[in-house]
Amino acid sequence: MSRPGDALTRLRTIWQPAAYHGFGHTAGFFEGWYFKIVDATEQHRYAIIPGIFLGKDGVDSHSFVQTLDGASGATCYHRYPLAAFSAAPAAFDIRVGPNRFTAQGIELNIDRPEQRLIGRLAFDGITPWPVTWRSPGIMDWYSFVPFMECYHGVLSLDHAVRGQLIIGGAAVDFHGGRGYIEKDWGEAFPRAWIWMQTNHFGRTGVSLTASVARIPWLGTAFRGFIVGLLCDGTLYRFASYTGAVIDRLEVTDHRVFWEMRGPVVHAGVRRQARLSLVAHRDEEGVDLLHAPMRTAMLQRVLESLTASVDVTLSVDLDRAPVEVFAGRGRHAGLELGGALEEIL
After folding, report:
1. Sign of the CA dihedral 53, 55, 57, 62?
2. Residue 325 forms beta bridges with which residues?
3. Calpha distance 232→163 (Å, rounded)
4. Which residues pair with 186 in a beta bridge?
5. 255-269: per-residue pLDDT in tens?
6. 5 pLDDT tier (thresholds 50, 70, 90)
7. Which of 148, 73, 41 is nearest to 301 (CA)?
8. Rounded to whole angstroms, how far apart are CA atoms 306 and 233?
9. Is the pLDDT of residue 3 over 50?
10. What's the distance, Cα to Cα, between the start and end of the chain in Å?
């Protein structure tokens, strides 16, 4: 594994959220990239998650490729030696064993008794969360804080997929499909979080990503959230750092209700807006994914790719709310993890 240990490299990656951030770390660190792929028929839905885990005191350190079959809910955790992981400095080019992951596509060569997943996929028209000098990605100024428990990046809200994968013994064509890419890195996942994502609406180019979590902060903690809705080329942002507030966050056996309000930029003008999300939980196609805790990668995250999310966005125009977008997102990723009462 290449470890330049270069302080300049680590500084530069602040403005390159896709790149590997672990150079110089030897223990107590994780990093994982989340690739969601859905074919044109929408019958084949997968999450592919490569990553690295550096355990406390170096114990149980390894690299991995984790997969979730969104149709069946089956998961596989393919463990590789730590030395099987490599990353380009300050660039998005990750290798885990014979598998390679970049912003332009992925190459998979998993041929094990529990799963066979082989082939190449290319991505066209990736749409990353904007990065500027003042706001290096979805975490905005929090990206500069050196003691965050977990950092987050959205590398492509929506893009086209082409190519083919051998899944089991069958060839599956992904040409004309859609994809999404994000990542997390840091010491461990939060104690509690809710996450949802979908980019399958009634028309192409609409994408939602939304997360809320318990954020440790200077000996205490707060409920932090980040939501982005890409619609008609505009990214509407609701987040703790934008001054947005949550009016309702409720989880039932079958739904997640989330309502928020705050300032957004609409048609070049800063206005007040409201966003309503209702995620419908489908207990079919649900399994447990491994997530990084401080001592091990534990199988504790309930996730599906079979949820749906009703999205309604309204913006105040001439002092009256006007509905800007309403639609239902299909094949939604939905995670609920940890002690949810701490954020509800």
Report:
1. negative
2. 313
3. 27
4. 30, 150
5. 999 999 999 999 999
6. very low
7. 73
8. 26
9. no
10. 41
One-letter amino acid identity for 306?
A: T
**How many Å apart are CA 297 and CA 176, to the nearest integer?**
34
Segment holding 7, helix H or strand E? helix 7-12
**Chain CA centroid to CA 27, Å:** 23
Determine phi and psi for 341, rounding to 5 degrees: -60, -20
The two structure tokens encoding residue 155? 């590398």
d(CA 166, CA 92): 25
**Distances from the Cα of 162 to the Cα of 35, 77, 197, angstroms:** 14, 25, 21
Which domains occur in the chain, in start order? 1-187 (2.40.370), 190-344 (2.40.370)
Q: What is the pLDDT of residue 337?
A: 86
Give the predicted TM-score (pTM) of the model: 0.94
Alpha helices in 49-177 (DSSP H): none
Residue 85 contacts residue 57 (beta carbons within 8 Å): no
pLDDT tier at 7 (50, 70, 90 boundaries)? Answer: low
What lies within 8 Å, CB to CB, of 312 at 6+ separation is 275, 276, 323, 325, 326
For 139, residues 6+ apart whose C-beta sits below 8 A from its C-beta are 148, 151, 152, 153, 226
